[in-house]
From TrEMBL:
GO molecular function terms noted in the UniProt entry: zinc ion binding
Keywords for this protein: Cell membrane, Cytoplasm, Membrane, Metal-binding, Repeat, SH3 domain, Zinc, Zinc-finger
Membrane topology: Peripheral membrane protein
InterPro entries to which the protein is assigned, alphabetical: C1-like_sf (IPR046349), PKC_DAG/PE (IPR002219), STAC1/2/3 (IPR039688)
UniProt-listed PANTHER family: SH3 AND CYSTEINE-RICH DOMAIN-CONTAINING PROTEIN 2, STAC
Subcellular location, record wording: Cell membrane, Sarcolemma; Cytoplasm
Domain Phorbol-ester/DAG-type: 42-93
One Gene Ontology CC term in the entry: cytoplasm
Region (Disordered) residue spans: 21-44
Name by which UniProt lists this protein: SH3 and cysteine-rich domain-containing protein 2
Source species, domain of life: Eukaryota
Length: 234
């Protein structure tokens, strides 16, 4: 019976030691040999033509541009002279530098009132700066849907049938009392020396007077004389 107890206790002791070897306690017990640290990576210099003056990392003297008198590391972009490369080639290379994040200011800002605010967040400041591109896009969208601001001059508002909306003022010509509206029956070739204006077929113009078979018309910013047989009054 005693031999059986001794064998059981010996087996329990061996199992506990095997478990401790697999899962060592933190801060206690002998630990297995760890992996050796990787050796530092040296600089990888290559011949480089410096288009701009660059200081040497060792002697701090300028490297002459447009010449092969210098070397540059592929990773950290450090420049050295040919005769200074032996003194710095054994040093550790820091590697590539991390690029900082830069926001593209041409994209609109997402305001808290648009994206939704979380519970407990402070209300947005009314004096906060708004991206001008976003403001212009929102203004253009409101014009496209016919909900433009009311402070626009009435000359940019018009009505066609039952539709009411906004339009550019330079696309419309006002007809004053005593003037008549004409449509060109055919294309007319103009002549600047004689003061005649050229018209396209079916072009609309406003007549302001008639002299010797010619009608003085205006179309936008253009003014001139057009033969009366080429026009039809509307």
């Amino acid at each position: 019976m005693q031999r059986l107890k001794r064998s059981l206790s010996l087996r329990t002791l061996l199992r506990s030691k095997s478990v401790e070897s697999l899962f060592p306690r933190p801060g206690g017990g002998a630990q297995g040999p760890g992996t050796p640290p990787s050796p530092p990576r040296p600089h990888g210099f290559q011949q480089y033509v410096f288009k701009k003056h660059c200081p040497c990392e060792l002697c701090r003297q300028l490297i002459a541009g447009n010449s092969r008198q210098g070397l540059r590391c592929k990773a950290c972009k450090a420049g050295v002279h040919l005769w200074c490369s032996e003194g710095i080639s054994h040093q550790r290379c820091p590697g590539k530098t991390a690029t900082s994040f830069c926001r593209n200011f041409s994209s609109p800002l997402l305001l808290p009132e648009q994206g939704g605010s979380a519970q407990g967040s402070t209300p947005p400041d009314p004096s906060a700066r708004v991206d001008p591109v976003y403001e212009a896009l929102r203004f253009g969208t409101s014009l496209a849907h016919g909900t433009g601001p009311t402070e626009l001059p009435p000359s940019t508002q018009g009505k066609v049938g039952d539709r009411l909306g906004f339009f550019p003022a330079n696309f419309v010509q006002r007809v004053r009392p005593g003037e008549s509206v004409w449509r060109s029956c055919r294309a007319v070739q103009g002549d600047r020396e004689q003061g005649r204006m050229s018209l396209r077929e079916n072009q609309i113009c406003v007549g302001v007077g008639r002299t010797q078979g010619l009608i003085r018309v205006t179309s936008g910013r253009k003014r001139g004389l057009v033969p009366a047989e080429a026009l039809t009054e509307i």
